[in-house]
Amino acid sequence: MNYNSKKDIINIIHNDNYKSVETAKELTEKLEKEGFIVSDTYDYKAKLNICIGGDGAFLRAVHNYGFPDIPFVGVNTGHLGFFQEISPDNLNDFVKSYVNGDYILEEIYLVEASICTRTSCIELIGVNEIVIKGIESKVIHLNVSIADNYLERFSGDGVIISTPTGSTAYNFSAGGSIIFPTLQVLQITPLAPISSKVYRSLTTSAIVHNDMTIKINPEYRDENSILIVVDGIQHKYDNIVEINLTMSDMTINKLTLNPNSFWSNLKDKFI
After folding, report:
1. Is the pTM of this model over 0.90?
2. Which CATH number does 110-250 carry?
3. Which of 74, 116, 212, 215 is most buried (most C-beta within 10 Å)?
4. Which tens digits make up the pLDDT trace of 73-105?
5. Is the dihedral of CA 174, 177, 178, 180 positive or negative?
6. Residue 246: which of 151, 114, 65 has the closest Cα?
7. Is 222 a residue of the active site?
8. Among residues 78, 94, 74, which one has the least CA distance to residue 30?
9. Are 242 and 216 in contact (CB under 8 A)?
10. Which of 16, 55, 89, 249 is an active site residue?
11. Using CA atoms, how far apart are residues 240 and 71, in angstroms rounded to an integer?
């Protein structure tokens, strides 16, 4: 059954890589041949965002356009491409499936942080993760609570708070667990925790239910030594006294042609 009007607007977002540019041209021709309208500029009335590049390009597009309700689908011209399901060699199959409505929309959960300084609070949202770490690789000391229960005085390089989707990104490299993307949980993973007679920190990740808040209070001496990294983008604020992290009420949608692609993707990318 065809779920898509032939006059639907589609956004194609790509990086400046030669292969991405050429793939965008080829895909534009195929979509326009089917009667779709490919916008010259980003159109917030579009029915689909097609992001061409690697995972970095996908994340930048989501952030740059403000976590829109328009579903995303990725074409991989990068290296890893965990978000990017479609190969440039399979554009015909993708267009055919999209025309016929042979796809599903998967909800991607987001992580939200409220960064409170001595004067104000700043809201940040991440697709993969929000990292709290020391500037210039400085060891930091963080008091960590979950659902108002004090957990630990963490000492080390920092902590990663990742979404299920982000569990296969920085979190995975840091030794965190892989989480199936439909599970509504967050994960807190330590970065180089110090465990000695003086400092005692958890050395493994912890899974946190979606209705629980992770509260982090830097020790006074570290209030100006904190770096916040959201999906690879660094943010620096002075006099940070508290950081509250939760699963965001917002989500984004990712179009997928194969509802069982997670495990095959995992095997292809990492094993």
Report:
1. yes
2. 2.60.200.30
3. 74
4. 999 998 777 888 899 999 999 999 999 999 999
5. negative
6. 114
7. no
8. 94
9. yes
10. 55
11. 35
